[in-house]
Amino acid sequence: MTDDSNTKEIVSGVAETVIGGGAAGLGVVMGADPVTVALVAAGGVAATKVTNAALAHFLARTRARWADFWDVYRKGRAGDPELAEAQVQANSDDPLLRDLVVEDARAVAEALADPVIPVLARLTRAYQSEGKVADGFFRGMRRLLTDVTEAEFGALRDLVVSVMALPHPANTFTIELLYSAMEPDTTVQLHALCHVIKIEKAEVPTMVVGEGQPVRFTLGVVLLDPLRIFSLIKRNDLGNETAGRWGVPSSVNVLITMHALTRMHAVMV
């Protein structure tokens, strides 16, 4: 029997189930495997071929991404590939690793850009090695990595690298990224404002944020769409909204803690 004949029988059988079984038949279809549901939606052999080709591409891409994921994960654990493989095998029943990989699965399947997969692997490795369950930072990074295009990912990575390379003042607590002219009649540029913590010398040490004027740096990074990049950081809880300054709307500002920025840098580079 040809593939076309098989397809026709499947589509015909599903259609008969729906028509003959009413709501019960529809329930059977809704509970069917994704390929069958896709065949029902296709409504014909030609469309089914396109659907099958798309599914084949999706599966091949997902397999390639998982291979890349585990390759990066192993390389980060040990220099010896055999030792690295043994360590992965030893952790294969670890519920923590299992739950982290379940979190990863959506990004591996849905990410817009292949280059984010190694970042996801390094993030997972870091959490597993530290015995940490997936938290807000992990999920925020996973969502951000799922949503960025390859160009956006490259721009974000360059931005993080550039900010981390700055000569940060001691006790820098937060970095405010500002895409604007800081002075009248100057070119719009990307600036980093380092907000320093002041540690009070008292019986009980306290920290006061925002003491004095922040230290300003001008970054040589061009963001083609700063609104989009800043929105991704804030929407995924990796940075905070600011009230805006110098008449600049908050959409072109984002406030990131030095701790979060350091963690982003560790897995993105």
Keywords for this structure?
3 domains, 269 residues, alpha+beta, 59% helix
Query: Strand fraction band?
Result: 5-15%
Question: Judging from the principal axes of the Cα atoms, what is the shape?
Answer: globular
Count of discrete domains: 3
Tell me the number of strands. Answer: 5
How far apart are the first and last residues' alpha carbons, in Å? 52 Å
Description:
The chain is of the alpha+beta class and 269 residues long. The protein has three domains: 3-43, no CATH class; 58-147, no CATH class; 167-268, no CATH class. Helix content is 59%, strand content 13%. It has ten helices and five strands. Strands 1, 2, 3, 4 and 5 form a five-stranded antiparallel beta sheet that branches. Strand 2 (189-200) and strand 3 form a beta hairpin. The longest helix has 33 residues, at 45-77. It starts with a helix and ends with a helix.
The gist of it:
Helices cover 59% and strands 13% of the residues. The chain has 269 residues and is an alpha+beta fold. The chain has three domains: 3-43, no CATH class; 58-147, no CATH class; 167-268, no CATH class.
List the helices and strands and how they pair.
Blueprint (H helix, E strand, L loop, with lengths): L2 H28 L3 H9 L2 H33 L3 H10 L4 H16 L6 H14 L5 H12 L2 H15 L7 E9 L8 E12 L5 E4 L5 E5 L6 H10 L17 E5 H11 L1
Antiparallel strand pairs: 1-2, 1-5, 2-3, 2-4
